[in-house]
Amino acid sequence: MSAITYKTIALVGNPNCGKTALFNLMTGARQKVANYAGVTVERKVGSLRLKNGQTLSVVDLPGAYSLSPATPDEEVTLQVIEGRRPGEAAPDVIVAVVDATNLRMNLRLVLELLRMGRPVVVAVNMADVARAQGLKLDLQRLELELGCPVVETIAVQQKGHLQLVELLEARFEAYLSIQRPSLGMPAPASPEALQRDVRRILAAVLSGNENRGRFQHRLDAVVMHPVWGLLVLATVLFLIFQAVFSWAAYPMDAIKDLMAATGEWTLTQMPEGPLRSLLVDGVIAGVGGVLVFLPQILILFFFILLLEDSGYLPRAAFLLDNVMGKVGLSGRAFIPLLSSFACAIPGIMATRTIANWKDRLATIMVAPLMTCSARLPVYALLIGAFVPERTVGWFDLRGLTLFGLYVAGVLSAMAVAWVFKRVWMKSSYQPLMLELPPYRVPSMRNLGLGLWERARIFMRRVGGIIFTLMVLLWFLSTYPAPPAGWTEAQGPAILYSAAGMMGQALQHVFSPLGFNWQISIALVPGMAAREVAVGALGTVYSLSAADNAMADALSPVIAQGWSLATAYSLLAWFVFAPQCLSTLAVVRRETNSWRYPLLMAAYLFALAYAAAFVTYRTTLWLGV
Amino acid sequence: MFLSELTHGQRAVVRGLVAASPDIHASILRRLADIGFIAGESLQLLRRGPGGREPLAVQIGETMFALRLVEARCIRVELQ
């Protein structure tokens, strides 16, 4: 909270009305994304400077179909507008954003807002699209009918928000001074009554093309086709995975080289001692090992944002609804689960669009089984070290192995969801009610802002939790130092350290899975976040090596040191293990109880242990 | 008749909402109305999902929604 509190305007509108694009246009990169206290609903605030030097706070409220909330998102929107959220004053002015091409639906919410008796400005967005469709809108008449100011905006154009800003500049103070009669909360109007008013208003303000097509039905005939549609979906998903692995290679190599060079340079610049070891073995080997995966994460998010912005994702959910229904999930679960391939945290947060609590809980419970990008470092390391580079038909064996791991995650999620819904949380009805918006060309500006946001979150993790753990692990693996008179022949020095002892103790638990003490140590900080395990292995092996081997050389080291069975077993472990405290924390916040995160951790650990055990024994038995 | 009985491409007008099964609570009917299934509004059944049963892609007014059969059975319509 800053010391100065600005006057606030809040953007309110139906989902898919272009509200967030308008928000991005008004505030640019001057925005902060956080959560509303106690709920996982995103709180987006930015600032807007007016010509008179005044600064306004702009809040982008979650999209809502009406003021009778059906989801946690809508509940928050209503609370904020009414000034009922603790620590959050009611906005001074409400900007109701409406989609000019769909006033029939959007105006109902505007009428509801007006009934609350608060200052409202209506922004008729996508005015350009409406004109292109041959619609004629009489804005002055609309202003008269609604009894509040109306302006036109085009959120996808550089200057599309200026009319709104000018209106705010000219009349903002005037709005504040208007003493609206305090009505209290009016009784909610019935949708029928609201729609009667909407029809009357539309008859007065709207003219032009009666039979315009808002939807691209020809495109939908392919994209939503039972056969072609599924083919398109498979191709899209395949392309995404292909891109994540092939395009990312170059920037990843660049980051790796940079880290290696930094390590070498530090080695030559500093005298040998604990500080140099901390920097090279702890910070550079550990943090660098994780940083390498930034390009892959960004590419994955790029595609997810692209699909989201274009309007394709709900179509994919439409196609997969049947399959999802078979295991007891809603088609709506597709979007959160797809996001979980990038990271389970936004995925779990996206489940808030699922109104039914049991459906939502089932989706949350299986979200961590989707192969998130934090597993990539582990998979990439192990596959690189143990799976030979060989082609199988058209495919690369390494790519196939990775694909297999993704499939294993999806299949187990389906199985778990099925068991979950059949055995524990019986509910036969799962509503869908999913809007399929018209296709839109994604705006590069929004994509850029979205990616920037993701990169920032990842870098904060690398700089925060991962850095801290790496430094801590270095201390634990360096001290206590081996006793006087110790020689290299008695084993690596790290065995005497706290981490070494911990690893040897844990080995009793993990040896049935074929894990050695180095892996056992790495799994401990890896509890905080999966990718940390790779950095931790880097640090452990780097410290136990006689010369200062870099994390870069980790792959050949483990390729020599581990059996194939151990490697496969560790891969199986990572398919299931709930090694991400942030995910568990989000589940705690989302479900408002410790019960579900604990249950999640327990069932995932049990699955991980069983899967790793079976994999280890089977590989040994096969003798490969 | 109900929305669930329409064939692909058929147009109809909403006549009202009825809870068709015990799973349907008042809040779900309210939601259907909130998203636009209001008496007097015209709709068109565009297509159904793979398998030919559900979900149903319905254009209501100027909006397209995907519904499952359970919801579609609650929407009473009259052919246009």
UniProtKB/TrEMBL annotation, chain A:
Tell me which UniProt keywords the record has, alphabetically: Membrane, Transmembrane, Transmembrane helix
Cross-referenced PROSITE patterns = G_FEOB (PS51711)
Residues spanning the membrane: 227-250, 278-307, 361-387, 399-420, 462-481, 566-586, 598-616
Q: Which domain of life is it from?
A: Bacteria
- Keyword Transmembrane helix (UniProt): yes
Q: Where is the FeoB-type G domain?
A: 6-174
Record-given protein name: Ferrous iron transport protein B
According to its UniProt entry, this protein's organism is Rhodoferax mekongensis
TrEMBL record, chain B:
Name the Pfam families for this protein.
Answer: FeoA
Residue span, Ferrous iron transporter FeoA-like domain: 1-79
Q: Which SMART domains match?
A: FeoA
Keyword Iron assigned: yes
Does Phosphoprotein appear among the keywords? Answer: no
Keywords recorded for this protein, A-Z:
Iron
Q: Which Gene3D superfamilies match?
A: 2.30.30.90
Protein name, entry field: FeoA family protein
Query: What is the source species?
Result: Rhodoferax mekongensis
